[in-house]
Amino acid sequence: MNRLGYLLIAILFAVLSLSFSVIDNNSNTKTITDFSLKNVDNKKVSLSSYKNAKGFMVIFTCNKCPMAKFYSNRLNTLNKYYKTKGVYLLAIDAMDTLAYKEESFTLMQKKAKADKLNFPYLQDKSQVVAKQFKATHTPQAFIIWKNKSGKYDIKYEGAIDDNAGDAANAKPFLAEAVNELLQNKTVTNTKTESFGCRIFYRGEPQKMKTN
């Protein structure tokens, strides 16, 4: 099957369990509280682990989602480039491990090894961090940027880019926002539309409803 075929299957799968982000550029700035999550190397990672960080690209992703699978190489490229500028990439799997055996920590470790991930792949087993970001699906990207008080504000939310199946012809929303922040500019597009596999929050049946 060619790449287009895989993309069509991914889109169909995503639609069946889909969550769309809603663009709302009038929302107030949200500050993110520091968190500590277990990485696939069994070490804890927190925002405060990065003393020289200007900001972070936080990507909610997972093992099983077809849309998320398109982005491993692109995320490696983003992290390799921007970490030299003090902007680090953190990937977080907040899928309910009780509902999805494919999201076990062991399989996260296998994915990280198979995809040669060069960034932390963190398990949010309690889903506390995902709730703080109000993450709804995978893949979903956020940029958090250090403010004058040393805390981190969300500056961007949405898609990594606009073309999962063709990286070469994709508009790089996430990278464009990081570049503007590095130039001390206001982010032009603070939110972009994105879609992927829904994050179902354990113990909250109302989240199962279709938007």
From TrEMBL:
Gene3D superfamilies, A to Z: Glutaredoxin
Ranges for domain Thioredoxin: 26-183
Pfam families: AhpC-TSA
InterPro entries according to UniProt: AhpC/TSA (IPR000866), PRX-like1 (IPR047262), Thioredoxin-like_sf (IPR036249), Thioredoxin_domain (IPR013766)
The protein's name: Thioredoxin family protein
